[in-house]
Amino acid sequence: MPPIIDLHCDTLYRLSSEPERFFASSGTGSTHISLSGLQNAHSLLQCFALFTDLCELPVPDSLSPLKEQLDCFHAILARSEGKLRQIKTSSDLTACIKQHTIGALLTMEESCLSEHPVSLLPKLYEAGIRMVTLTWDYSTFLASSAVNAPPRPIPNRHIFPAAFSRIPDSYPGLTPTGFDFLAEAERLGILIDISHLSDTGFRDVAAHSSRPFLASHSNARSVCNVPRNLTDAMLRTLAHRGGLIGLCLHEPFLTPASPTKENITEALIAHITRILNVAGSEVLALGTDFDGTPGNAAIPDISKLPHFAEQLKKTGLTSDRIDRLFYKNALRFFKENLPA
Q1: pTM (global) more than 0.85
Q2: Which terminal Cβ of the chain has fewer Cβ within 10 Å, N or C?
Q3: 261-279 vs 305-314: helix axis angle to the nearest 10?
Q4: What's the confidence (pLDDT) of residue 60?
Q5: Which of 161, 137, 160 is nearest to 149 (CA)?
Q6: 3-state secondary structure at position 76
Q7: At residue 161, does pLDDT exceed 90?
Q8: What is each CA distance from 268 to 75, 95, 254, 286, in whole angstroms?
Q9: CA 44 vs CA 179, 206, 296: distances in Å
Q10: How far is CA 114 from CA 140, 161, 183, in A?
Q11: What's the CA gap between 138 and 102, in Å, rounded?
């Protein structure tokens, strides 16, 4: 049974101000990812996203949406009594593995949190954030999103108008501010995550980035034709650039069919097969999107991933390829690309 590295979850957003729920027994339905679930899955490293819906800002304060989730994260670390350790550097990751401690890496989903998002990057780095998406579902003055969803006004919430008002039709990918953001993030050592980004935005990052980048939670568009998944050309680019794609368990990104446990498993295997055939064995990792989705009929929480590894063996997938998917590719990527 291979250990596990997962590139994306929204557990901090789901827990909000209730960090104690992270310590509920696995299978209770509290969260898809819990301490017991990570332990049962033999997790090496879990990436925890700080997520902001720009239409849910209580006030137009750039870092206030992150504070509650950051507080939750640090409360979880403290309560874990050393079982979970924050990872900021490749040295931290190496130490975690030697000490048989589960690593916790902070990432961010949605980066347009200010009228001057580039100036926020040093603060994000200082907080330990090491990977960011440029967008979520909304197109902003950083970049166009894959789905280009319109803002959704929510009663008694501030809509951050500047985030939505500066993306003219002439910028279907990254905007000038987006290019500045990309350059500064790479200078600091923050990895760029292109999940949620438009196709043109992907090509912009590929053309202008100087470091490897990744798609933390996306699948193969040739298997399930939705904008959030990646084309074969994108998969080849990620492989060529030393990047990763995290296999996402969100059912609408897996199959257009009515979800059942059986056809979801078949769809997962189809995505794995396609990505391996198109991009090779070194690009594919896990990016569950647990706690950011209603769930997955075949893999209901993190603790069930080892069972999925056993299913993959029965399909004829080699142990080496399963190990690469479950942890080896992500471990190589982070050791090479996190700050030393």
Answers
A1: yes
A2: C
A3: 70
A4: 59
A5: 137
A6: helix
A7: no
A8: 34, 33, 7, 11
A9: 33, 29, 22
A10: 11, 10, 17
A11: 33
